[in-house]
């Protein structure tokens, strides 16, 4: 499953869910608030900007935002909300594509660094973030914690969400540190729609080592965008990495 084929026109058209899911105010609001705070008076670069879920409201807060995005159909959906002058987008992958200028903030939300399917690509992503940042600039990553504790011996799948009309489950390949997320949506008929996406999961400690290799230091880690404490039971984290200022 290649990322550019996964995020095709059909996926892009179904991606936005205004007012619900990851577009719900209680989800999106704290995300934008925190990123605007971290950006301070500088510009922000979003890796995998997608349809502009975060970039559009962040730009509305007065933060200049540029994006990098691999999927043309996703950018087409973004263009219905903001033009190129408002939110410039460079087409390419987030591990190697370079955007013009320097930024105080680079951010990568909603588990998207795991879309890079090798450790080498993920390390390259950190290095790409570092090359875009001013001294003291920050790289913010939102990422889930692998739920391997839920896997009894011989089982390779976990159901991580089940609600009326939707079931989400992950199938794990622990040897390669890969997971495929399966999203089943259905109604009262016998038909269901399946969307799948592959990922390489990353433990927080491994993520920190990737950051060190790219010249970052961990500044903060919380369980959510509102600043809840990160614990052994946290299902995800928001990690802020900082490029040291010149000595």
Major pleated sheet = 7 strands, mixed
Radius of gyration over alpha carbons?
18 Å
Order of helices and strands: HHHEHEHEEHEEEEEHEE
Report the mean per-residue pLDDT as an integer. 92
Strand order of the largest sheet: 3-2-1-4-5-11-10
Helix content: 25-40%
Task: Count the beta strands.
Answer: 11
Name given to the CATH homologous superfamily of the largest domain = Vaccinia Virus protein VP39
Which regions contain 5 or more consecutive residues with pLDDT less than 50? Answer: none
Strand content: 25-35%
Which fold name corresponds to the CATH topology of the largest domain?
Rossmann fold
Quickly give the structural class. Answer: alpha/beta
Total number of helices: 7
Spatial separation of the terminal alpha carbons: 45 Å
GO molecular function, one term: methyltransferase activity
Keywords: Methyltransferase, Transferase
Domain Methyltransferase: 45-137
InterPro entries: Methyltransf_25 (IPR041698), SAM-dependent_MTases_sf (IPR029063)
Task: Walk me through this protein's architecture.
With 247 residues, the protein is α/β, with parallel strands linked by helices. It folds into two domains: 3-146 and 202-243, 3-Layer(aba) Sandwich (Rossmann fold), CATH 3.40.50.150; 148-198. The chain has seven helices and eleven strands. The strands form two sheets. A seven-stranded mixed β-sheet has the order 3-2-1-4-5-11-10, with helices on both faces. Strands 6-7-8-9 form a four-stranded antiparallel β-sheet, with no helix packed on it. β8 (178-186) and β9 form a beta hairpin. It starts with a helix and ends in a 5-residue tail after the last strand.
């Amino acid at each position: 499953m290649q990322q550019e084929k996964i995020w095709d026109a059909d996926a892009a058209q179904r991606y936005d869910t205004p007012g619900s899911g990851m577009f719900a105010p209680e989800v999106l609001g704290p995300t934008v608030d925190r990123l605007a705070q971290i950006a301070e008076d500088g510009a922000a670069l979003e890796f995998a900007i997608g349809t502009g879920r975060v970039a559009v409201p962040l730009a509305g807060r007065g933060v200049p935002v540029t994006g990098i995005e691999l999927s043309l159909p996703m950018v087409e959906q973004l263009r219905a909300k903001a033009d190129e002058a408002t939110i410039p987008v460079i087409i390419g992958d987030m591990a190697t594509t370079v955007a013009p200028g320097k930024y105080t903030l680079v951010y990568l939300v909603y588990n998207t660094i795991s879309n890079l399917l090798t450790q080498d690509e993920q390390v390259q992503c950190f290095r790409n973030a570092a090359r875009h940042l001013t001294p003291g600039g920050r790289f913010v990553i939102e990422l889930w914690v692998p739920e391997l504790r839920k896997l009894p011996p011989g089982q390779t799948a976990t159901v991580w969400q089940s609600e009326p009309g939707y079931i989400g489950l992950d199938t794990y390949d622990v040897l390669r540190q890969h997971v495929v997320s399966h999203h089943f949506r259905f109604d009262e008929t016998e038909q269901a729609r399946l969307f799948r996406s592959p990922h390489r999961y990353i433990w927080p400690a491994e993520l920190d080592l990737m950051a060190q290799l790219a010249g970052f230091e961990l500044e903060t880690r919380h369980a959510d965008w509102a600043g809840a404490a990160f614990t052994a039971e946290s299902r995800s984290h928001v990690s802020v990495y900082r490029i040291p200022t010149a000595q």
